[in-house]
Design a protein that fits this description.
Elements: H1 23-27, H2 29-32, H3 35-38, E1 47-50, H4 70-78, H5 80-91, H6 98-103, E2 108-115, E3 122-126, E4 128-132, H7 134-145, E5 152-160, H8 164-178, H9 194-200, E6 204-208, E7 225-226, H10 235-247, E8 254-258, H11 265-270, H12 276-279, H13 281-294, E9 304-307, H14 312-323
Parallel strand pairs: 1-2, 1-9, 2-5, 5-6, 7-8, 8-9
Antiparallel strand pairs: 2-3, 3-4
Helix pairs in contact: 4-5, 7-8
Length: 330
């Protein structure tokens, strides 16, 4: 049941809506969008997301994850009292729990998962192991049940120490928790609008970046959601990268702009007593907001935009991304 939806250049002119000035508006921002925007394909909307969403579940004394290089894991075994606090300080990208992030406007969750040896459970991971996946995912489902007109995109980005049995376990968990809320995959995004999703009672788009996704009709493959990684500690390189990638964005698929800096080993060694939030994230916060303000959503424009520490300055990042949707009416 595909529906033709209006493109960016077909939007009627409207008077400017008032800026978002309360967190209650952030909590229900998709619900509050004008009908014209709720009929726009979801890949044309500007949507805020959180980078490494679940790192708030990481504790300083947790085991070092399999996403770290072998020599770092060796340091963790033999010199954990020194190495683990350093890894912890550079692994945490969010302090707010998933419900607080959703209430703050986040609608895209960046998820990295891993198993442990001789353990059947699945954990979130980034440098160190975080919590088991089950309760946070259940919290997302509960939040969605109380916000029936909101949609969340879950992006399972990386899988560490995963066997086919582990993939089956994870997918079974996703199906059990979200079941009828899952949006089926499609070859085109033309009909996938917020109003269509609400009408069909779909609230969750699951991106599963592994070939195992091909076995399921409601796991979106990696190729339909491009997510280029800047991998730099320099702001000018980040902005150049964001501009270059957005300009070359494929028009018919989803697109994630990663507005963040990534510490490399020389940077960490130079700031051994530092943290990501204190020494790196603040450097790019203002340039990122400026970059977002210079862009517009729509066909070939901003889509999903992610950042670290999304609640800083009372969720200013989320407000900036969401308000860019007003440019449809300029």
């Amino acid at each position: 049941m595909e529906h033709e939806s209006k493109g960016f250049n077909d939007m009627p002119h409207r008077s400017k809506r008032k800026p978002i000035n309360s967190n209650e508006e952030l909590e229900n921002w998709m619900t509050r969008l004008p009908t014209a925007l709720r009929n726009v394909p979801i890949i044309h909307l500007a949507i805020p997301g959180s980078h490494n969403t679940m790192t708030y579940t990481i504790m300083k004394d947790n085991d070092i994850g399999p996403d770290e290089p072998r020599y770092i894991r060796a340091l963790g075994r033999y010199c954990s009292i020194v190495s683990k606090p350093i890894i912890f300080n550079w692994s945490i990208t969010q302090h707010d729990n998933v419900k607080e992030q959703l209430n703050g406007g986040i609608r895209y969750l960046d998820l990295r998962v891993a198993t442990k040896p001789m353990n059947g459970d699945i954990y979130f991971v980034h440098g160190l192991y975080g919590s088991k996946i089950y309760q946070p995912l259940q919290q997302v489902a509960e939040w969605l049940s109380s916000h029936p007109n909101e949609t969340v995109i879950l992006d399972f980005q990386h899988f560490y120490s995963f066997s086919e049995m582990d993939h089956r376990h994870l997918v079974d968990t996703i199906l059990q928790i979200f079941h009828s809320k899952l949006c089926p995959t499609a070859s085109t995004f033309t009909h996938i609008t917020l109003n269509w999703l609400t009408l069909e009672r779909y609230q969750v788009i699951v991106i599963y970046r592994n070939i195992y996704a091909q076995n399921y009709s409601n796991l979106w493959p990696s190729g339909l959601w491009r997510t280029p990684w800047p991998d730099t500690v320099r702001v000018n390189e980040l902005i150049d990268f964001l501009n270059r990638e957005l300009q070359a964005r494929p028009l018919g698929i989803g697109f994630i702009s990663q507005c963040l800096l990534t510490p490399d080993m020389p940077f960490v060694l130079k700031h051994l007593c530092g943290t990501l939030q204190r020494n790196l994230a603040p450097v790019c916060q203002k340039p990122i907001l400026s970059w977002i303000n210079q862009k517009q959503p729509g066909r070939g424009g901003l889509n999903i935009v992610i950042a670290d520490f999304i609640s800083d300055t009372n969720f200013l990042f989320c407000k900036t991304v969401i308000e860019s949707n007003k440019k449809f009416f300029n």
